[in-house]
Design a protein that fits this description.
73 residues, alpha+beta
Length: 73
């Protein structure tokens, strides 16, 4: 089991591909592939979303997903 923080890339269907994130985390620790155990998420917003008085639009922010622990082999 390894710990770290690797962003899950976006798959072609728009969903987070945390299998690829787990593989990347495991490769960074010298393993070949992995399976995610724990994930985390964070909202990322453009600077436009922080302007006082401006109406927030759905496209101003998006959610990033991260693998934080994985089982590797």
């Amino acid at each position: 089991m390894v710990s770290g923080r690797v962003q899950c890339p976006t798959a072609s269907d728009g969903a987070a591909d945390c299998k690829a994130g787990a593989d990347q985390l495991c490769r960074s620790k010298g393993f070949r592939e992995g399976k995610s155990l724990t994930t985390d998420s964070a909202e990322a917003c453009s600077a436009k979303a922080l302007i006082p008085g401006r109406q927030r639009e759905p496209s101003d922010c998006h959610t990033n997903y991260f693998v934080t622990r994985a089982i590797c082999r």
